[in-house]
Predict the structure.
Amino acid sequence: MPKSAKNTASLIIGAILVLLLTACTGEPETGPKHVKWDRDACERCRMVLSDRYHSAQVRWIPEGKRSQVMKFDDIGCAALWLQDKPWKDAASTEIWVTDHRNGDWIDARSAIYVKGHVTPMEYGLGAQSDPIPDGMDFARALQHIQEIEKRFNAHGVQLQEQMKQQVRRREMEHNH
């Protein structure tokens, strides 16, 4: 084989290997993303994700771009963050929660939710893949989250505002 043919063949093989290696190392375009527990922060409330049994993720595809993933410390934070997004109901939007029994990621829309859990933001829902008698579907879980948020109105951004108001009250009391 002539030297120029060997060089061309080597370049082609090299280019194919680079393409294969690049394709294998990229982030997947579906499914939950790897969480760096005790380091990644919740997109809504900014708390660190540390509860491996009550976390959530939302993956969506911005127009003309690669998918993006947001991580949340509680399904309540994910649901409230997602509620005003125009693409929340798109078929390409994925919502993932961890199963409260084993920490595996499961589809949030098909999960069954159980009340009475101690969760990072106190929405109190654990998710699981198996149906149970008192379990809630995704729609009922979203209603539960809205009820908790209305009753306490002290999560995420609202909590920061309440803390600012408390500082102002203390300053006023201190000045009188």
Observations:
- The chain has a mean pLDDT of 86.
